Each structure stands twice: as structure tokens, then as C-alpha cells.
Amino acid sequence: MNRKAYLATGRMIAMLQGFSKLRVNVHGKENIPGGAVIFVVNHFTRIETVLLPYHIHRLTRVPVWSLADASLFSGPLGRFLDMMGAVSTKNPDRDRVMVKTLLTGEASWIVFPEGRMVKDKELFRKRVLLPSSGVRPRSGAATLALRTEFYRQRMLRLQQVAPDEVTRLQGMFQLTGLAPLAKGPCHIVPVNITYYPLRARENALSRLSELFLSDASPRLKEEILTEGSMLLSGVDIDIRFGRAIDPSAYLAGREIESDILSTASYGFDDQLPSLPEMKRQANRLVQRCMSSIYDLTTVNHDHLFASMLRAYPFLSINEDDFRRRVFLLATQCLQETTCHLHQSLRTGQVPLLTDDRYHKYREFSELAIEKGVAVRRDGTLVKDRSKFSAPFEMQRARIDNPVGVIANEVLPLTTLQREVHLMAWHPAWLVRRRVAGLLEEQALEEYREDYATFFREGESKGIEVGAPALLEGRSRALGVVLVHGLLSVPAQMMELARYLQGKGLWVYLVRLKGHGTSPEDLARRSGGDWVESVDLGYALLSTICERVVVGGFSFGGGVALDCAGRVGKVAGAFAVCPPQRLLDVSSRFAPAVTVWNRVMDVFSYQWAKKEFVESVPERPELNYARIPIAALRAMERFMAELEPRLATICAPALVLQAEGDPVVDPRGSQRLFEMLGSTRKDYRRFPLERHGILAGEGAGEVHAAVWEFIEGIMKGGAEAPRPAPVRDTAQAK
């Protein structure tokens, strides 16, 4: 095997990886021991045959050769594999070469014990591994490890007793000395490779194959289609190394021990007396390897969706209910330590319940519908059970039935499967209750943690002041999410909340992250944090009520409108004194202060930086008295990004404005109103000379206007209320 060719090929793979859209993530590299190693790997694509040796070599600096299917060793691909140090499964000298390189430490090896790239793992989970089933894992890797350890122990232990036999064995394996054997046993390291997302579609490589490989086998064309999609469209590849397995424990039997210590001259291919026992131990070892490999699967959203669709006991499932069940599963996975999770499952899963902005559900459902696994009917998915029960024998399983293949990948994960089946049998009302309770507790726990971290003596208010709150209503037909303004807390909206609760509505008061603690907390927040806060509130209330209206005060009105623009099912949105342009001195000063801070950073004059501006709040018992400059800039960026998206809001909308507002220019809120895409919208002004018009004198009229808007949505049922003309209550008086 040509070492220079091997290294050159590795550089070529690195270059190709840079041009492709593969994103390779390596986990558990600390589990790779020194010395000889056999890496046993699950098999899904031909990519592993060349990609894995490159990445393992980068970690160990030891050449890594692989055992590859004999069908690949023809034409240019065969020459390429030769350079990479691959050995054909039909090479008559393969075992001798592999044992020799492992004993000398010349190279490590990669073996794919599964054989086929699509396996029915239900049979593995049930331990149905009879030869007639065609799914027995190949024991070659285990046999190879045992044979290597057998000869290592034999040479070390016969040094004094039978030196001539040791010399003969050294010659057989081209060993110049026994020093490499003293480094320790040949370990087996289980490796799992998980691809996400798995999407096989026509691509440039498959089109070229039709032109230049018209006589290629269906199997090769299928592989080009699948793997070309991964290379060109982008996929995450999680390579996860498990704990090393020492095979020496499987050689402790009396029969094997007798052969190790025998002074007879055994040839490499001789039938040893202990061969039947060696085969039994090899089968035990390969079972352990396969269990470890499957336990290392990196669970992703597709696994959860496919597993839930497979396990759901009925043919039809409401799509909102489907997403809630997977949300609970994802949250459960995050809390458990039994599964390895894709990075997208390590963050909050609330978008699954709101706008699906990372397209996790949308892409899965489109795949399921495209492949005939399900059809969509009026907000429900109707599944085809046969797509999950048919055995995976066909060559094109990854293309024709990828959802079934995805569900199949996690069948051996017994803990996950137990949770999937329990969740699948939950009644819908219980799923709603669990989601609501989990979200309510999540919001409270986030607040408690933030309060403990950023509490500032003499400045932070009591912990009860900034807490989010859920007010119970009499009807679940419609609920309202209320969002407070910048520098304030949920209690700012409490008068309106109590008024609406008195009308029988459920109300949730959101706490925007960074509020209710101290200005230092707010200074590190951005628009994304505030979007998450409102989305959590919407997700919570949408599990309790059939329809949800979102509304907010001041900047909270802008965040509420943003939610209405992203979440298509919002029943309506209202904004009270929403900012388009701020008139107070602090906000006008913010851009200049930001520039000054950047200058000070360059010259390292940290003492000169101005990060906060003093303020005189309207409600000092609730609001911060110091304004973080960074928060003002974040708010301005948020509103600037929201402006072009206002036209996408289709839900009924209401904008309320104080005529003499000292903070928000009424002309700005008027422009914001005109930008709204809603065909049913209303703008009202009130003869009040303050910004906070939801509390205090005159607030009753504002509350009544909000209720009139909500009542119109309720009476309209599925249809939105008719548009009302722009009204000026000041002129009406």
C-alpha cells in the first residue's frame, strides 16, 4: 500500500469536502485508544469508505485502511480505493494482511459489519438474527480482533517456552521484534455515522451518470443519486466514537487458552481445536459491537417525526397535535441522557409549535407527502401504514421510502422507542396539558435563573414584579398574549389583563428576556431573545385555547406584530403606542454613544465607555431607571427589520395611540399602521398626554377598544371582522 498515495488522497478528500456542503461533526475522539484499533462502523453510504479514513487519520496520525465491498474494485473507483488502502472483501490474503498490520501497528482498520446499507433494525431489536433472515451482522471484525489478540498473546507468552515457534510467527507476520506487541491489545472502537437531513433527489452527479454511465447497475445509480444529494445540497454528518472494547476478555475460555499456550506449529489457516469456541465468542463480540454502534446514533428531528408517525395508532393525526407530540419528545430527549442528540435538538424547541422557522416540520412533512407516506387533508396527515411495515429489501429504499428508513434507524434505541410509543398513545387533551405546563414552568424557570444571576441590590424589583403570569379564563375559544414594553415588566399589562380575564378570556403576560432583573441583563439581549419570549407565550396559550390574539404595548406591540407576521394562525394582533421613531433624549443619543464606545474599544479606554443612560421612568415601581445603550440599538434594529415584513401580516389588526405621547410620535404609529398588510385593520387615537395609556386615568376607554376588537374576532368565527375606518377618539369627543 502506497503511503504517499494515501496521504495525497487524503488531501484530495479535504479539498473535495471544502467544495461540497458536507458539515462533519466528530464526537468522542477521546475514546480512541493508542495502539492497534479496529473501527466497526454502521453502513449507509459509500461516502464512509473514503471520508472516515481521512478523519480518523487526522485524529490519530496513523494510516487507516478499510475493508470494502468487492463490487467497488473495478475501473477508476477501484484504483482510487487501492490508493486509499482499501482491501476487497474477496481478497484471499485479506485476513493475513489485516492481522499483520494490526500486530505491527502499521495501520488501523475500518470494517462495516452490517454489510448492506439498508437493514431492517426491527429484527436486530428483537434479536431475530438467523442466517435465513439475511440480517446477521458479519462477524469479520470480531474474528479479526480475536485472531490478532490470539497471536499477540501467543507470541508474548511463548517467548521462554517455545522460542522457535515465536520466531516462526514473527516471520509469518514480518515482525522484527516483539516490542509492538507489548503496547497492549488490539481494541475495537464502535463508530456511528448519522446523516441529517436524508434527502435523495436528482442532482448534477446523477444527471452526469445518466450520460456517461448509462449501462451502470441500478444499485450504482441509486448510490449516486443519494450521495450526490448529500454532497451538493448539504448534510450534517455526525461521526461518533464509542468506548473501546478490549477483546482479550473473550479469549479467557479453557479451550482457547489451551491453543494460545500450545507449542504446536499452527498455520494461519489451520483449523484450531478451539475454532468452534472462537466462533461463539466472535458472535458475542459482534453483538456487543452492533449494540454499541446503534446506541451511538445521533437522534435528529426527522427521527422523532418518523418514529411518531410510525407509532401513532390511528391513520389520521392532526398536524398541530403531531407537532406537539414531537415537541414533548424533543424536550424529553434533552432532559434524558440516554440519547445522543443532533445539535438542533440542543436548543429550545418552541419554533416547532409556532412558525417552524427552521423548517424542521415543513421539510419532513413535504418529504412524507412527496414519497406517499402520508397525504394532507384539512390540517391532518393520513399515513400509509405499509410504508413502515414492509421489509427493506429493495435497492432504492433510501429513495423510494426514506421516511421508513429514517424510522428504522432508531428502532434499536429502546428507551427512545418506549417514549415514542407512550407519547403516541397519549390522548390529545393530555398532550395539550403537558405542553402548556412545560412551557409555563420553562418561562418561570428562565426568569428565576436570570433573576438570581443578575439581581442588583437597590435596583432590582421584587421577584414577583417581573414574573410572567397566566390568568385563567372561562372559555377556551380564544386567548390573548400580552407583551410589555422595553425597560418594563409583565405587571405593566396587568390592568388590561384583568379586564380581559373579566370578559372570560385566558390571558398570558409574557416576560421579555432581560426584563424584571437588572439593566445588565437587558444589555446582553437581542431581538432573537424577545422573539423567543413571545413565541413561548403564543405556544403556551395556543395549547389551551383554540385561537390566540397577540398584543403589546410600546415596543412590545412591535414584537407582537412580528409574531403575527411569522405565525400564520394568529387570530389577530394589536399594538398600543408602537414605536416607529422615539422622541426622548436617550434614544436620540444612543447611536452617538454606540459610535463612541467603538472608538473607546479601539483605544482600550474602557473607563470612557458609556453603556447606560439615566432615565426618569413613567412608572418607577416597574421600569428600569438606567437604559442600556445596547438594548436601544437592538430595539431599533428589530423595528427596522420588522418594517418591510409588516405588509405580510394578514390577520386583523388594531393600532391604538395617545395623541400627546411624549415617547412615540403619533405620526410614526400612523405610518406603521398604513404599512400593515391586513385588509381588516383599525387605527384609533386617544386624547391622552402620556405614553403608558393602559393604566391610570382614561385607560378604561383603551381597554374597551381592545375588547371591541377581540369581540369582533370572536363573533366573526373563522372569518375575520370587517374592517373599521380609522377613528380619532379625540375628535369624537
How would you describe this protein?
- The protein is of the alpha/beta class and 733 residues long.
- The protein contains 28 helices and 22 strands.
- The longest helix is centred in the middle third of the chain and has 27 residues, at 428-454.
- The radius of gyration is 33 Å and the shape is elongated.
- Residues 128-136 and 718-733 have low confidence and may be disordered.
Summarize this structure as a short list of keywords or feature phrases.
733 residues; 47% helix; alpha/beta; disordered C terminus
What's the layout of helices and strands?
Layout: H1 3-19, E1 22-27, E2 37-41, H2 47-60, E3 64-68, H3 75-84, E4 87-88, H4 94-104, E5 108-111, H5 121-125, H6 140-157, H7 163-173, E6 187-196, H8 204-212, H9 218-233, E7 235-241, H10 254-261, H11 275-295, E8 298-299, H12 301-311, E9 316-318, H13 319-335, E10 340-341, H14 360-370, E11 374-377, E12 380-383, H15 386-389, H16 397-400, H17 402-409, H18 414-424, H19 428-454, E13 469-471, E14 478-483, H20 494-502, E15 506-510, H21 519-523, H22 527-544, E16 547-553, H23 555-566, E17 572-576, H24 585-603, E18 612-614, E19 626-628, H25 629-642, E20 653-658, H26 666-675, E21 681-686, H27 699-716, E22 727-728, H28 729-732
Parallel strand pairs: 1-7, 2-5, 2-6, 3-4, 3-5, 8-10, 14-15, 14-16, 16-17, 17-20, 20-21, 21-22
Antiparallel strand pairs: 6-7, 9-12, 11-12, 13-15, 18-19
Helix pairs in contact: 4-6, 6-7, 6-11, 8-9, 12-13, 12-17, 12-18, 13-18, 13-19, 19-22, 22-23, 23-25, 24-25
